[in-house]
Write a structure and sequence with these properties.
By secondary structure, the chain is of the alpha+beta class. The protein is built from 26 helices and 35 strands. The chain is globular.
């Protein structure tokens, strides 16, 4: 059934036109780019003034309506602009519930949402948001984060206020109704606002990016106030006057700070959780039989095809992380309006948290967050292009100068240059590493790994264009499907050492056999030959320096399948045995002669690629399907026979099913586009590496970090270059290649373990994805054009004036004493104690980690000196001075007992 067009048909079937709509909503233009925010307080609905956008009260409910062009993102700065009726728009309605919202307000907001939805013609996606558990889309509206004020303090006189600040990308500043130590947590930054002084308490587990955001927030709030920065565990080092002020409201004798986030769920919102989600979820069909009745669909791996009834409503349960209601294009308006209520009823029945995200989406208007739940989403969601122009399969003759000048073109094609630079090739098999002599013919075997050191060749000497290209060298690592763990480990070490030796001026790309990138294939002009591992001995025997491919290979017989139709997507892969042959394919068969067989439906470009590979093997003969000679059939009988050849029209072969996209489909036996198929499958399981003709998938940006040995991430929708912070690490996911961006000031643990970050993300990403996706590592200030092109108006100088947290703190030094290691501190009791205080402090959760996960400055044998004074007393039940007096065996026993040894 063709996709239902919501733009032309604004109103759903069986519409109820007379539903009363609030006069405030009637002011909203139906077909315009806009961002609107309303507040519901008891029975009143009032529009929020623009300067107040981003400030919420925890006892109220709020409604947001955001409308943008397809593929673009609205935010709180969006200015209302009318659009022509034929311009497709994306529409989103969010309702946000504060943590102390009354039942009356909850009920009122649901009724108001139905009014707004009806007024707009039931064409918007609806999100139910809860305080501290907002979706990535909601957060993207407020670039600098948002404030939540306490409704309980609205009418109280302006006095002492306590705020809890946290959030890496989006800073949440939550005002607390009471002032008490129980709100303190080592993950948070706490701000205590008093009449003359603002105390900023820095939790020791908070991140640098959070600390910077918090100091900026404080400076925006109070301009004429003294700012005093207090370090977690060093409250005693405040001056007597400051301590006296602090003790009035937060007596230090009662100090109690949780070491880890007791509210772990605060970050566990959707993709804002640890990256360990499974993309398998449950699908139910909603049937109205007097009351809600759900029939669970019996499907192994859910796919878009399971949403087959355009008249129905389906519920997708993402295991308590989120609940999605999908409403078919022909479903009644009553079904569309009641869907959210059904989702909430389901969450209650399953005993999911009240904060569980519930979203209603409409057929043909599905947001990317919904599509991504399906393993094959890149290949099946064709109806919504998300505003990205289709990528052409043919770029004609590669213009090396244009690739240097236009980063967007480089990103679209994923070609850094035209591949003519110098390359040095290394082969790793077992513990053997050898440099291969430069030859015209390049043959890889599937039981080995290869490292290519490539020097980028710029076709221009214009400085601006050279800066635009961004990198001078690329290190490629290619792992065969049959390579042993030992081989891959050796290749990893060599490739990373080569990358580090570039001193930041290059890019590192790690590939698997199925996921060669366009630029990697361009290095070999589309003539890369990949052969089975058992050929390894023949091709690389005796370390023959005068190795000649033709001499060695002429003794062999084999069949190569040709993939692609251009130099940047072509390769030849040995296949044995053949299960079927498609008329769309071309093959090169080497027996006592070299034959190039081309199917009737193969393109002229594919035939040219096949002929060029055949020419590498020697003198070849072209054979067209249906015109084969008897001599041909006799010569190729062991590989190729007439019963395998099928005509192009009835071609049900799995080889053609893979030609749709380079992002998720596998041939020979894959179902639903392959899902998470391991790269160690048989050599026949091949991804078709032609450039996809479908619209480019939406590129996604994630801020990532390690937390207690787990990788966590926050998605940034509507990203721009300003979202990349020098003290953080990010992943830019293009669907076929995941870029890891390392900030110049990122913590050493993230800078050194970049491959672990990428592999952990790819293997456990909370949406459909194969684990063999190619990985690339880029460093700040050395980004290649293929990365920059995904950002609007990239500026090379942006970020050069980055101010770190330590610098911000020093700038505030005239008004904020540095309390961390003040020589006159009351904590410095004696020489031993000075030694204890001279070490950087970490939370207990960091210090008990495995040795390889410890920050570099920590001596694994003296972990205890990195505890704060308060944590030390809490763990050992004595001060460091008393501990230091104990015999050595007793100290070791206590450290083992507390996992600090």
């Amino acid at each position: 059934m063709p996709p239902f067009n919501f733009i032309k048909q604004e109103v759903r079937p069986n519409t109820i036109p007379d539903l009363k709509v609030d006069a405030t909503f009637r002011k909203v233009p139906k077909h315009a780019l806009t961002f609107e925010l309303w507040k519901i307080d008891e029975d009143r609905l009032e529009a929020v003034a623009r300067p107040q956008y981003g400030t919420f009260y925890d006892n109220c409910a709020y409604i947001i309506y955001a409308s943008s062009l397809v593929g673009h993102y609205a935010n709180h700065e969006t200015i209302t602009r009318e659009q022509k009726p034929n311009v497709p728009l994306e529409r989103y309605i969010h309702y946000w519930l504060g943590s102390n919202v009354s039942e009356q307000n909850r009920s009122n907001v649901v009724h108001k949402i139905q009014e707004l939805d009806t007024y707009l013609g039931n064409v918007a996606s609806i999100y139910r948001e809860s305080q501290n558990h907002e979706s990535a889309r909601f957060l993207s509206y407020f670039k600098k984060g948002y404030d939540v004020l306490s409704g309980a303090l609205v009418n109280s006189p302006q006095g002492v206020r306590l705020f809890q600040l946290y959030g890496r990308k989006w800073l949440r500043a939550v005002e607390l109704a009471d002032i008490d130590w129980t709100h303190f947590n080592s993950d948070y930054i706490m701000v205590l606002q008093m009449e003359t002084t603002t105390f900023v308490w820095i939790g020791r587990s908070s991140a640098s990016i959070e600390r910077r955001s918090a100091l900026s927030w404080v400076q925006r709030q109070r301009t004429n106030c003294t700012i005093c920065i207090v370090d977690d565990g060093y409250e005693q080092s405040m001056s007597p006057e400051q301590k006296q002020l602090w003790n009035k409201v937060l007596p230090l004798q009662q100090r109690m700070v949780y070491q880890t986030n007791k509210l772990g769920s605060d970050y566990d919102c959707k993709t804002n959780g640890d990256v360990n989600g499974s993309n398998k979820f449950r699908i139910y069909k909603c049937n109205q039989r007097g009351r809600l009745h759900l029939d669970q669909l019996d499907v192994g791996v859910p796919s878009k095809d399971d949403l087959s009834d355009a008249h129905g409503v389906y519920l997708l349960d993402n295991y308590g992380q989120s609940i999605w209601l999908w409403v078919g294009a022909q479903a009644t308006q009553a079904d569309a309006l009641t869907a959210m209520g059904n989702g909430r009823a389901f969450a209650k029945k399953k005993k999911y948290p009240n904060s569980t995200l519930v979203v209603r989406v409409l057929e043909g208007q599905e947001p990317v967050e919904f599509k991504r739940l399906f393993g094959n989403w890149l290949t099946v969601w064709q109806d919504n292009t998300r505003g990205h122009k289709p990528v052409s399969t043919k770029f004609g003759k590669l213009d090396a100068v244009l690739l240097c000048e236009r980063p967007k073109m480089a990103a679209d094609t994923q070609l850094v240059d035209d591949g003519r630079g110098e390359r040095i090739l290394y082969r790793i098999h077992g513990d053997q590493l050898e440099e291969l002599p430069p030859t015209k013919v390049v043959v890889f075997t599937t039981n080995a790994s290869y490292v290519v050191k490539y020097t980028v060749q710029c076709a221009t000497v214009v400085p601006a264009d050279l800066a635009c290209v961004g990198v001078k060298s690329i290190i490629y690592q290619w792992n065969g499907s049959e390579a042993s763990a030992e081989t891959i480990a050796k290749a990893d070490g060599f490739a990373m050492a080569s990358f580090e030796a570039l001193n930041g001026g290059g890019m590192f790309v790690q590939l698997y056999e199925f996921d060669e990138t366009p630029h990697f294939l361009q290095l070999f002009e589309g003539k890369l030959i990949i052969m089975r591992g058992q050929r390894s001995e023949l091709l690389h025997s005796n370390n023959n320096l005068h190795w000649d491919f033709k001499t060695n290979i002429m003794l062999e017989t084999f069949l190569l399948k040709i993939y692609g139709d251009a130099s940047y997507n072509g390769k030849a892969v040995e296949e044995h045995p053949l299960s079927s042959i498609s008329s769309k394919d071309c093959y090169v068969i080497k027996t006592n002669h070299v034959w190039v067989w081309c199917g009737q439906s193969s393109t002229g470009d594919a035939r040219e690629m096949a002929k060029s590979v055949g020419a590498l093997l020697g003198e070849s003969s072209l054979v067209l399907e249906g015109k084969e000679s008897k001599e041909f059939w006799q010569s190729v009988a062991m590989y190729f026979n007439q019963t395998l050849v099928i005509n192009g029209q009835s071609c049900a072969s799995s080889t053609t099913s893979s030609s749709s996209s380079g992002a998720g489909s596998m041939c020979n036996g894959s179902s639903n586009g392959g899902g998470n198929i391991s790269p160690t499958l048989s050599n026949n399981c091949y991804l078709n590496t032609t450039i996809p003709t479908k619209p480019r998938p939406p590129v996604q940006l994630f801020l990532v970090w390690w937390e207690q040995s787990q990788l966590r991430c926050e998605e940034i929708l509507g990203f721009e270059q300003k979202d990349l912070c020098a003290d953080s690490t990010y992943i830019l996911d293009t669907g076929t290649l995941a870029y890891v961006w390392l900030g110049s000031k990122a913590i050493k643990q993230e800078r050194d373990r970049y491959t672990s970050i990428a592999q952990c993300y790819v293997q456990n990403a909370p949406f459909g994805r194969r684990s063999a996706t190619a990985l690339a590592v880029v460093r700040q200030y050395s980004e290649p054009n293929v990365f920059k092109g995904f950002f609007e108006m990239w500026q090379d100088e942006l970020g050069k004036n980055f101010i770190t947290y330590e610098q911000m703190r020093q700038e505030l030094g005239s008004i904020a004493p540095s309390n961390a290691l003040n020589e006159g501190s009351a904590l410095h009791l004696n020489n031993n104690q000075k030694d204890f205080d001279g070490h950087k402090k970490y939370p207990l959760s960091v210090l008990v980690q495995e040795m390889d996960m410890l920050p570099p400055e920590i001596n694994p044998l003296r972990r205890e000196v990195h505890l704060t004074h308060d944590d030390f007393v809490s763990v050992f039940k004595m001060s460091f001075y008393e501990f230091d007096e104990l015999p050595k065996w007793k100290k070791q026993e206590l450290k083992k007992l507390n996992k600090l040894f």
